[in-house]
Structures are given as structure tokens and as C-alpha cells.
Amino acid sequence: MPFKFNELLQQVVDESAVDIAKELALAGDVSLKASLLVMHCLQRIAGGEVVYAGTGRLWHLDERDRKIYKKFTGHNHFELSREFGVTVRRIYDILKKQV
Q1: Which residues, at least 6 apart from 86, have a Cβ–Cβ distance to it below 8 Å?
Q2: Number of domains present in the structure of the chain
Q3: What is the Cα–Cα distance from 80 to 99, expressed in whole angstroms?
Q4: Is residue 52 part of a domain?
Q5: What pLDDT sits at residue 5?
Q6: 42: domain range?
């Protein structure tokens, strides 16, 4: 690849290009261009700064919670707990939080 970033940024470009291609069903050159645009945006916004990149755990939990709320029928607490690998009590807490 002709682009040179530090090792971490290079990995982000390479892996995000693959992810973009899969998720959006784009050709490799298009997904690489999209990945590079995002990387250049990141460099423009945060270049030279010390940036903490979290694991995304909270975002994934919020996404899971939205899915649970969307699938809730009013009486399927147990089924949701099994599908999402949480306790029935947790399903109640998630639904209460969404109201």
C-alpha cells in the first residue's frame, strides 16, 4: 500500500477499508478511499493530540438495549433475556431505562 502512517493508523486504514467494503458492499478501491477520507478527517481534527480511543463498550451496550426495546412485545422478557444473554431482571432494567 502506498500510504504511510504510523503502525496503528495504518492498521485502522487497512481494517476499516475491509469493514466498509463488507458493510456497504463497495468495491475495494472505493472503500479504501472512504477509509482514507475518515483517517484524514481524524488527523485534521485530532492530529498532534493525545486521544483516548475507548473500546466502544458503552456504544455496543446502548445498541443492544435499543434492539431489546425494539423487539419487546410486552410479554417476552424471558425470550429476550435468552436471545441477548442477560438476566430477566436486566431486561426489565433496560426497558425501564428506555421509557
Answers
A1: 94
A2: 2
A3: 17
A4: no
A5: 66
A6: 7-46
Per-residue H/E/C for 36-97: HHHHHHHHHHHCCCCCCCCCCHHHHHHHHHHHHHHHCCCCCHHHHHHHHCCCHHHHHHHHHH
Do residue 83 and residue 64 come from a single domain?
yes
Check which CATH number belongs to the domain holding 69 and give it. 1.10.10
Each residue's pLDDT tens digit, 46-85: 888 888 888 888 888 899 999 999 999 999 999 999 999 9
18 domain-assigned? yes
Q: Is residue 29 part of a domain?
A: yes
What is the maximum span of the chain, computed from C-alpha positions, in angstroms?
56
pLDDT at 9: 82
Burial 76-91 (b: 16+ CB within 10 A, else e): ebeebbeeeebeeebb
88, 81 Cβ separation under 8 angstroms: yes
